[in-house]
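Practice record 12: protein with magnesium ion.
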Amino acid sequence: MFKKQQFGIDLGSDLIKIYNVRKNTLLKEKNMIAVMDKDTYLAIGNDAYEMYEKNPKNVRVMIPMSEGMIADTGSLEIILYSLFRKASPHLSKSPELYFAVPTDMTQIEKRAYYMLTRNGAFQDCRVFLINRPIADAIALGISVKNTKGEMIVNIGAQSTEISVIADSRVILSRVLPVGGFTIDTEIVDSVRRYHQLFIGMRTAARLKLAMGNIEEEKREARKAMGISSVTGLPKEGTVVSEVVNKAVLSVIDHIGEDIRSVLERTPPQVRSEIHKNGFYLLGGTSSLPGIDRYLAETLEYPVLLSRFTDEGTIHGLQEIIASKDLTRQWAYPADGKKKKKKR
Ligand SMILES: Nc1ncnc2c1ncn2[C@@H]1O[C@H](COP(=O)(O)OP(=O)(O)OP(=O)(O)O)[C@@H](O)[C@H]1O
Ligand SMILES: [Mg+2]
């Protein structure tokens, strides 16, 4: 039987995730574009990341998102179109696109999702938006309609979204401009201070993935290429895990403080439910070893780590698209024209 083409899309600041419903496949690529001389597109996605920090002066490698929001619609449209051709070489005329979006968006921010798909191959598609905490909750098995109180913390690359769900809806949501990239920036600073070595963000991310660990005292070291801040010349240095984890911890402490402040603003009955059951942690940065135990200890709340990490939202979208009931409840058209009967 003919099945319409539907896609779930999570536009991350680090990774774009595209789920193709018909094929049951997930494409995950870097949200990056390399542009030469202002208007020639050289590479997109993972290929653009390969050029990042190695590019000549006339090539710019850009991320079209800022703190989890669309910052450059034109570049993002090109990235999306190119990745869609990979996810589904035969795009039908009017596919349905379901984007996960932050809860509290202005009309202009909402419109950016609609404008993304107004040209070329996408112009006849139907665009729906689904609030990200709802997608996350559904992936986590939370019954949004019945829960008395749940909290979800999605720690990504440029943003951390802290959401409280109760009364069948998201009652509180805060998007902070902090995440994995903030950790990488802190590592760059920390390595410069302790090792007199300027490293790039790619190297910082590699050191984080290799040695980032919040609770283990294990002492490790890795070689890293950079520029010596003493001589100004390229140099291979040795970076120790204490330097990396000092940087990691400063950012996680910051996130912990923000979670505490959202908890303080949460109505007492809902807060006591969260205290009883714990709060959920997902997003790529939740893969950091020991983060759940560390936050549980500092905040004195149980922490439930999701096995989905960076793919939680896309799993939620997958479940919503697969169920007519969930689609009717949680997906709304991006142009705001067609009213749904029930929300
Ligand atoms: N094992 C790991 N340890 C620490 N950080 C990790 C690990 N694996 C992935 N990350 C980090 O997770 C981040 C990507 O996560 P995710 O895909 O959830 O972000 P995003 O959705 O692209 O960003 P945002 O939600 O902020 O727009 C990157 O910063 C990456 O370095
Ligand atoms: Mg994300």
